[in-house]
Design brief:
It comes from Elysia crispata (lettuce slug). The protein is α/β, with parallel strands linked by helices and 365 residues long. It has a domain of 245 residues: Rossmann fold (3-Layer(aba) Sandwich), CATH 3.40.50. 57% of the residues lie in helices and 8% in strands. The chain binds 2-acetamido-2-deoxy-beta-D-glucopyranose (3 copies). The site of one 2-acetamido-2-deoxy-beta-D-glucopyranose (NAG) has 4 residues, from loops.
Length: 365
């Protein structure tokens, strides 16, 4: 079984590489790669949206808001199981160097992830490995739950093939396909945008100082050396500069946004995301956004409801150490200044929620 899966992935990988190279060659023959951006998305064609973010950055909520539209088919964290396969390699690296190894820095991982993104967004489920049809997070969302269950109870390869065919059909019924992932680099998403004129990227960032505190609380084990913060900032700088370049190339296909804007003005920020994708912001969606961000009671877990989303988005300021904040302010300086995350000068300023940490941001009242 494992062998078959590997050969399958290897084959798909070789094939994809071949196709990419072939395509690249074709484009190079056509007066350089400039012609890429001139390829237009045909009206009525299916749309592909990659929502790319980091852990604990509000991407589940954001993905959920987009998926609330009936035209959207969402695949939630399809790379979860693939990522787990690299766990031992990451642990080993961490043991040896005391530094975290991000998946997106592992070439083999990127090579395996890329064709999966392609297959899922284009609703090509033929021979889709169980690693992806049975992603644990896929089970949590309506679009993909049926596929998960069907494959889970299938007893023969024929039954499984039938499940994949049905899943593929479901996917094709929806004009907008969305992948929400924290396990991809912007560069990888860029490869997809280059070859699909109807593909869009939403790069969602939350103040990393807040994500830090959230991860510390949730996972406890996350190592917070300055070296790891430096690593994170390197990843952010790389992704942000790649996203900025990509946006210059495809102004209406790349959207860089901060979670704090969504938390501060949920309806306005959600509507902007809908406008970017080209979806109608309906009354029903509007109510969904309102309920998620103005709940009667906070819920915890991956898909939170908040009494006051903006207040909640700054709860971390009460708990994080000034030392950790300073490490971020120092190593992430370049990205922070581009994104408008303001540095903190003292513990007093950190704990005083009347002092905004976001340019254009309101004090938390
Ligand atoms: C799916 O796998 C079967 C058996 O390994 C193979 O014959 C077929 O060509 C594959 N189809 C695609 C689309 O990859
Ligand atoms: C998958 O199927 C098994 C039985 O074949 C069942 O026990 C299990 O709960 C199923 N998994 C999920 C997530 O439904
Ligand atoms: C908190 O910050 C506000 C705005 O800068 C300031 O007016 C207020 O005095 C500060 N409160 C404390 C306790 O430092």
């Amino acid at each position: 079984m494992g062998h078959r899966v590997n050969t399958g992935i290897g084959f798909v990988f070789v094939l994809t590489t071949f196709l990419l190279l072939w395509r690249w060659e074709q484009l190079s023959l056509n007066e350089g790669s400039r012609c890429l951006s001139q390829e237009k998305c045909a009206p009525g064609a299916s749309q592909y949206v990659i929502l790319l973010s980091y852990a604990r950055s509000g991407s589940s909520l954001t993905g959920g808001i987009i998926a609330e539209h009936p035209d959207v088919f969402m695949y939630f964290e399809p790379l979860h199981n693939l990522a787990k396969m690299f766990g031992p390699q990451q642990d080993e690296y961490e043991k040896m160097t005391n530094r975290h190894l991000y998946l997106t820095r592992i070439a083999t991982y990127n090579q395996l992830a890329s064709p999966v993104i392609e297959k899922l967004l284009t609703c090509d489920y033929r021979n889709l490995s169980r690693m992806f049809s049975m992603s644990r997070s896929a089970y949590d969302f309506a679009s993909t739950k049926e596929l998960y269950n069907c494959v889970n109870i299938s007893k023969t390869p024929e039954e499984e093939t039938e499940c994949l065919r049905l899943g593929q059909e479901r996917c094709r019924q929806k004009p907008v396909r969305l992948i929400k992932t924290i396990r991809l680099s912007v560069d990888q998403a860029g490869i997809f945008l280059n070859s699909h004129p109807c593909a869009k990227l939403i790069f969602l960032i939350k103040d990393p100082r807040g994500s830090h505190q959230s991860k510390t609380k949730l996972f406890e084990v996350f190592g917070y050396s300055a070296a790891n913060i430096q690593r994170f900032c390197w990843r952010l700088d790389t992704d942000l500069s790649a996203a900025t370049k990509l946006r210059e190339q495809y102004p209406d296909r790349v959207y860089i946004t901060r979670f704090e804007d969504l938390a501060m003005k949920p309806l306005l920020a959600s509507k902007r995301i809908y406008d970017f994708i080209g979806l109608e912001f309906t009354e029903k969606v509007s109510k969904f956004v309102y309920d998620k961000t103005h709940a009667k009671k906070d819920t915890s877990g991956y898909f939170n409801s908040r009494v006051n989303a903006y207040q909640a988005s700054y709860r971390w300021r009460k708990a994080i150490t000034l030392e950790a904040v300073r490490a971020y302010d120092n190593f992430c300086q370049k990205s922070f200044s581009e994104l408008g995350y303001l540095p903190v000068r003292s513990t007093r300023e950190l704990r005083n929620l009347s002092v905004p940490l976001l340019s254009g941001g309101a004090a938390v009242s």
